[in-house]
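Hi F.,

I've been meaning to write this up properly since the lab meeting, where we talked about keeping a consistent format for the predictions we share between groups. The idea is simple: the sequence comes first, exactly as it goes in, then the C-alpha cells exactly as they come out, then a line or two of notes. No screenshots and no reformatting. I'm using this chain as the first example so we have something concrete to point to.
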Amino acid sequence: MRGRGALEKGLGVAQDGERMSSTVNDASKGALLVLFLVTMIDMIGFGIIIPFLTYLVKDLADAQGVVQIGLWVGLLMTSYSVAQFLFSPFWGALSDRIGRRPVLMVGLVGNTVFFTAFGFSNTLLFALAMRFLAGVFNGNIAVARAYIGDVSTPKQLATRMGLIGAAFGLGFTIGPFIGGEFSSPAERWDVFVGTVFDTYPYLLPCVIASVLSAGSLVLAYFKLPESVLVKEDDGSVPRRSWRSHMGGMAKNSVAMLRTSSIGAMIWVSMLFIFGFTVMHAVFILYTEMSVDLGGLGFSEQDNGRVFAMIGLLGILTQGALIGPLTRKFGTRRLIPISILVTGTGLTLLPYTQASMAWLQLLVVCSCIAVGNGLFQPSSSTYLTRIAREEGYDLGVVMGAQESLGAFARILGPLSGGFVWELTSGGSYPWDYHTAFHLCGLLMIVSAVLTLRLPPLSMVGEGVDAPNSAEKS
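Output, unedited:
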C-alpha cells in the first residue's frame, strides 16, 4: 500500500525484516511464567519507591542541607525512565547476538543487587545513581517482548502480549503496596528495632523486591530455555550499534509524527502519558504535607494503599469494563472519554479534605484508574487498526509510540517536581494545586487533539460496530 511503501523506502524496515528469518518454537508454561515475572518485577521496581520516595528525599535532604525537595523527587523518578530509554536498544541488540535468555538473567541479577542498594542510600547522589542503575537493568523489558515474539505463532501472539499487559497492572499494584506497607518497619514492629532496618527505614521493601527478583532468577535458570535467535539468510546474527538503533528510533518517530492520523494518535498518547506521570512526582508531595498547610498528613503506608487501590481498579477496568464500554461507545469515542475522566480525577486530587480523605480519594482515584484503564488498551487498539487500514508497518508504528511515550515519562516527573518547587509555597491558584492543574490542562489538550482522529472502519470489527459508534 502507498503509506507502507513510502515508509519502508525511507526507513528500510521491510527490507531488514525480509532479510531475517527465524523458526518459532513454542514456549512452555514455565517460560511464560518467567516472562510474566520479569515484566511484573520491572513494574514493582518502578512503583515500589512511590509511597516512600518523598520521605526518603526529605530525610537525605535535611541531612545534606538541600531544600529543592520537589526537584529531587522528580529527578529520582525520572532517572529510572531515562536509563530504560537509553539502554533498551543496547539490551535488545545484545539479545540478538547472544540470545534472550542470558540478557534476561543479567537483568534479574542487576535488579537483585540495585534494588537493595537503593535501600542503603545515605546521600541523594547515591540514591540517584542506584535508581539509574536499577533502570539500566530493567531496560530489558523489550527483550521479554522479543522472546514472546520468537516463540509465538500469530494466533498466540495477542494473548501472550496480553500476559505482559496483565503483569504491568499487577506489578504496579503490588509495588506501591510493598513500598508503603514495609517502610519504616521499626516504627511498627518491635522485632526491627535496633536492626539495620531501623537505621535504613526504607531498606525492607527494597530487600523484598530483591528477593522476588532473585526467585525469578532461579526460576529462569531452570525453566527458561533459549528462544531461536533471529538470523540473516547467510546464517549470521544481525548486529546493530546503539547509535544506529537510536538513530533509527528517532527517524521512525519523526516519520510517524508527520503522518496525519497516526501522528495525531501518538501526540494524544504522549500528552496523556506526560500529564499522568506529572502526578507520579507530586502526589506524595501533596499527601504527605501537613493538614494545616492543605495536605493530608499521610504516612508511607497510606500512600501505598492509595496506589494499590488505583492499581486494583485499573485491573478491574481492563478485566471487566473495557469490553462492554467499547461495544457501547466504540474505540474512537472511548479515547476522549477516558482522557477527560482521567483529567478530572487528577485535577480534583488537591481538593481532597483531610476530614473526608478516604471517601474523596476513592472517588478521584476511581476516575484516574478507570480513565487510565480505558485509555491504554483503547489507544493501542486504535493505533493498531489505523496502521493496518492505512498500510503502515505495525512494528514501526508501535516503536515510535514507545519511544515518544518513554520521552513523555521522562519529562513528566521532572516537570511535576519543577512546578511544585516553583509554586508550592505560593497562594492559590499558584500553590500546591498548580501541578495538578497542569495535569488537567495536558489532558484537555490531549482530548482536543482527538478531534483530529479519523473514524475507524467497521468492516470486520464487530466489537466497534454497534450503534455506528465509529461513524460519528
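Notes:
The radius of gyration is 22 Å.
DSSP finds 18 helices and two strands in the chain.

If this format works for you, I'll send the rest the same way.

G.
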